[in-house]
Design brief:
Layout: E1 3-7, H1 11-23, E2 27-31, H2 34-43, E3 46-52, E4 54-55, E5 58-59, H3 60-69, E6 78-83, H4 87-96, E7 100-104, H5 108-118, E8 128-132, H6 136-148, E9 152-156, H7 159-169, E10 173-177, H8 185-194, E11 203-207, H9 212-221, E12 225-228, H10 233-245, E13 262-266, H11 270-282, E14 286-290, H12 293-302, E15 307-311, H13 319-328, E16 337-341, H14 346-354, E17 359-362, H15 367-471, H16 477-508, E18 514-517, H17 518-532, E19 539-542, E20 547-550, H18 552-569, E21 577-584, E22 588-594, H19 625-635, E23 640-644, E24 650-654
Parallel strand pairs: 1-2, 1-3, 3-6, 6-7, 8-9, 8-10, 10-11, 11-12, 13-14, 13-15, 15-16, 16-17, 19-21
Antiparallel strand pairs: 4-5, 18-20, 21-22, 22-24, 23-24
Helix pairs in contact: 3-4, 4-12, 5-7, 7-8, 11-15, 12-13, 15-16, 16-19, 17-18, 18-19
Length: 658
């Protein structure tokens, strides 16, 4: 059973609350002092503490501070209970962390209702069933049968009482008669479904009618199940068990709009304040009293209320100014506010409504009229909240439906895209296979052609050389020139075949990447060129730190071609200069730069195509070297490009990404 600690030095209060708690199904733990309270907290698992402020051995608010500082009780719900006249104590307690504050004299029904709201319904071990019927005989008989089935049971004799009990006790299920004097069971269920705190509570509607339309009406009202009052009680219990079995608990426990209400009354006339408070307490309201507008503002900052009643004429902050401040506060502006005065007059009424008051009432009409206006404003606010909840639910439903449509459309689009992607990937894979096969055939063909051309080429060169040796002295100048042209052509053809073979080999060789310093490789290429052409005077500049991640053999082939071209195209340039370096402008790129013949950028796209030569016969070459370089760079995942100016040199850039 849920244990509730009651700390109050008044024996009457302790016993009254103990009786109310026992009736509500709680286990009271009364304590007359803070010392007793500490001992009970040490030896019991307390679900909530009711704490008086004035105690013989200490201050209740200071004890609350002690509870909040202790990790074991920091989250313990605490309901402060003390004299209504001590407004400062109420403010102090709420600021210290009290979950609620109820003034004395209190309404025990209100206190129990607040306890039910503060204690998590999840702590209930046995389902609680609310039975609602105006017939005492039927109600008590059904409650007894449900209790024998191991449920907790509470009862209500009318629809209004049922709504209050549902808000206060949060039952696990409700069984309600379809026909009652104040409101039908269908109306009760509709009201339940509008309350955010209890709208998911399963409801079973009972009726004495045999008409099938009665069941349809019950289900339309929002009932989860339907039974006739003359049915076997076992059928009712079976339906009840099925409802509870299929119920999913809400993730959060919002405050009920049908629960107990609190009214703040502000008046500097103590006698009238007490008189109105008594009238409102008779109607079941918890009344918070304040004697000035300043006190009212301070109270509202720490404790929300359901309605505010303010006298217009008070010392200090007037009722109208207090109304203005409340209505200008975003968190308070929707709270119903009634201004009251002993004065009559059109100007007073207009001023009250102009400042945001929801109603205006004359004190001369009596406290019962003021209480009736309070009830009307709270009812209006409840209806407004219910309508807002309905609109929010409809909007949420429309949003969820739109999101579902969008999600379905997105899923369909994704499925279509996935299907298209799979089809494209299949076609791409097929194209890649065909391309790979074609490349293999082309490489094999190039290698075969290049290799097979060597035999007749060697024969042409050999026989031409033999002819020159055997009959060279007998030939005239023109004939010997013809033989020299044939030998030169066979040499160029041999170079071209070698280049084709190299391009074919580069396309097939496996790449073995490692850290390579391009500086020594470039120096080796330059040294070979100087040995081959010792009469050339060329200035060569090497930049430091030319490390790259590449295949060393293929890197050598790249530099052989690029530096060889630079050497070749600076042959006719006085003060020839070649520079090998790198740049790190966002991407590391290596370059070979010369100040030789250069080229026209309009023809830059032809540079890396096989057999494309921009300088005709002015410089020797096969037109395959740069194509080989591009193949090597691209196989490393890099790119190559060139910049040049006719007569002012060229720069060839390439990247070798890791």
């Amino acid at each position: 059973m849920i244990e509730i600690l009651v700390v109050d030095d008044s024996y009457t209060v302790r016993m009254d609350l103990a009786d109310a708690l026992t009736t509500a199904g709680f286990e009271p733990l009364p304590a007359a002092s803070l010392g007793e309270a500490r001992e009970l907290l040490r030896t019991h698992v307390v679900a909530l503490a009711i704490l008086d402020v004035r105690l013989p051995d200490g201050d209740g608010v200071e004890f609350l501070h002690e509870l909040r500082a202790d990790p074991r009780t920091a989250e313990l719900p605490v309901l402060m209970l003390s004299s209504e006249a001590e407004v400062a104590d109420r403010i102090r307690g709420l600021r210290q962390g009290a979950n609620d504050y109820v003034g004395k004299p209190y309404d025990s029904g209100f206190v129990i209702a607040r306890i039910h709201e503060l204690v998590a319904p999840g702590t209930r071990a046995t389902p609680l069933v609310l039975v609602v019927d105006d017939s005492v005989t039927f109600r008590e008989a059904l409650a007894a049968e449900i209790a024998r089935a191991s449920y907790q049971v509470i009862t209500a004799s009318s629809g209004a009482e049922a709504l209050k009990s549902a808000a206060a006790r949060r039952p696990s299920a409700i069984i309600v008669d379809g026909v009652m004097p104040d409101m039908g069971g269908d109306v009760v269920i509709r009201r339940i479904r509008l309350d955010p705190a209890v709208r998911t509570t399963p409801c079973l509607l009972l009726t004495g009618s045999d008409d099938a339309a009665a069941e349809i009406a019950a289900l339309d009202a929002g009932a989860d199940a339907f039974a006739r009052k003359d049915s076997d009680v076992e059928i009712v219990l079976a339906r009840l068990a099925a409802m509870l079995r299929n119920t999913t608990a809400a993730a959060t426990e919002p405050k009920s709009s049908l629960g107990p209400k609190r009214v703040l009354v502000v008046d500097d006339n103590v006698d009238y304040l007490e008189l109105l408070a008594e009238e409102l307490q008779r109607d079941g309201y918890d009344v918070v009293q304040a004697s000035s507008g300043t006190q009212a503002i301070e109270l509202l900052a720490v404790q929300p209320v359901d309605c505010v009643v303010i006298d217009t004429v008070m010392p200090g902050l007037s009722g109208v100014d207090t109304c203005k401040r409340i209505k200008h506060a975003p968190s308070l502006r929707d709270t119903p506010l009634i201004l009251m005065t002993a004065r009559d007059g059109r100007d007073v009424i207009l001023e009250a409504f102009a400042e945001g008051a929801d109603d205006f009432v004359s004190k001369n009409l009596g406290v019962d009229v003021v209480a009736a206006r309070v009830k009307a404003q709270i009812r209006r606010k409840r209806f407004s909240d219910e309508h807002r909840h309905v609109r929010e639910r409809l909007l949420r439903s429309e949003t969820e439906a739109a999101e579902a449509r969008a999600a379905r459309k997105l899923a369909e689009t994704r499925a279509a895209l996935a299907e298209q992607l799979a089809r494209s990937n299949f076609e791409l894979a097929a194209s890649n296979r065909q391309l790979a096969a074609a490349n293999r055939e082309l490489e094999a063909f190039s290698y075969s052609v290049s290799h097979d051309l060597r035999t007749p080429l060697r024969a042409i060169r050999s026989f031409t050389q033999m002819l020159e040796e055997d009959a060279g002295a007998k030939l005239d100048e023109g004939s010997r020139d013809h033989l020299n042209r044939v030998l030169a052509a066979t040499a160029r053809m041999s170079d071209l075949i070698d280049a084709l073979l190299e391009l074919s080999r580069i396309s097939r060789v496996a790449i073995q990447r490692a850290a390579v310093d391009l500086g020594p490789i470039a120096a080796s290429v330059i040294e070979e060129l100087r040995l081959r052409d010792p009469d050339r005077q060329v200035e060569v500049v090497f930049a430091p730190n030319l490390t790259a991640n590449a295949d060393a053999r293929l890197a050598r082939a790249v530099l052989d071609n690029l530096i060889g071209n630079a050497w070749k195209f600076t042959a006719k340039t006085p003060g020839a200069r070649i520079e090998i370096g790198a740049s790190d402008n966002g991407e590391r790129a290596y370059f070979v730069r010369d100040n030789g013949a250069g080229f026209d950028m309009a023809h830059a796209a032809k540079l890396f195509a096989p057999f494309q030569r921009l300088h005709g016969t002015d410089f020797a070459g096969t037109g395959v070297g740069l194509a080989t370089v591009r193949r090597i760079v691209e196989r490393h995942g890099g790119r190559i490009w060139a910049e040049g100016v006719v007569g002012n040199g060229a720069t060839f850039w390439f990247t070798l990404p890791t």
